[in-house]
Structures are given as C-alpha cells and as structure tokens.
Amino acid sequence: MIVVSDTSPLNYLVLIDLQHILPELFGRILIPVAVRDELQSAGATEAIARFMAAAPDWLETRQASEIDPSSSTWIEASVRSSRWQHRWPDRF
C-alpha cells in the first residue's frame, strides 16, 4: 500500500511525539513537495523543524505528479477517524 500524508497528521503527531506510529502502521510515508515545504516553512514549530532537519528514512518526498491517487491512501487531518479505528482497532 502506498500511503501519502497531508501536513496536519505529520505536524500533530510530531507535536505529541507519536510520529513513530506511522512507520509501525505503514512502513513508509510519502509526502508531496508542497507538504515538505509547508513543514519546513519559517512558521513551523521547533519540534517540526527538528523532525524535518533529521527526516527519518521512512519519510519520502515526491513530486505530486509522481503520486498516483488511484493507488494510494491519503492520511488527512482525521487521523483518528472511525475508518482507521475499524482497520486497526488495537492501535488506538
């Protein structure tokens, strides 16, 4: 499964120090260049800046044109949605 993250899930998981659940659930996460740029913006918190400065191997940046939306799953702001809880009830 190809998993693509929006800015908010990464941002909030880093802020609460739970970013480690992403590779545990999915192995690797793709982010579009625009998401990377937003996470590296001057307005990013110190925690986000540290995370992005030493980005883990499981986080890959891709051009949006390289990501096929029909064969990928997007992680959006509703990380704790009922769909996630249904698929991985032991994780939440």
Structural features:
single chain, 92 residues, alpha/beta, two-stranded parallel ribbon, two-stranded parallel sheet, 39% helix, globular
What would you note in describing this structure?
By secondary structure, the protein is α/β, with parallel strands linked by helices. The chain has one domain (2-91). It has helices spanning 7-15, 21-26, 33-39, 46-53, 82-87; strands at 2-5, 29-32, 59-62, 72-75. A two-stranded parallel ribbon has the order 1-4. It has a two-stranded parallel ribbon with strand order 2-3. It is globular.
The total of beta strands comes to 4
What's the domain count?
A: 1
Task: Give a short account of the largest sheet.
Answer: 2 strands, parallel
The number of helices is: 5
Unreliable stretches: 81-86
Tell me roughly what share of residues is in helical segments.
25-40%
Strand content: 15-25%
Indicate the radius of gyration in whole angstroms.
13 Å
Shape: globular
Order of helices and strands: EHHEHHEEH
> Which class best fits the helix and strand makeup?
alpha/beta
Spatial order of strands in the largest sheet: 1-4
What's the mean pLDDT score?
A: 81
What layout of secondary structure does this protein have?
Layout: E1 2-5, H1 7-15, H2 21-26, E2 29-32, H3 33-39, H4 46-53, E3 59-62, E4 72-75, H5 82-87
Parallel strand pairs: 1-4, 2-3
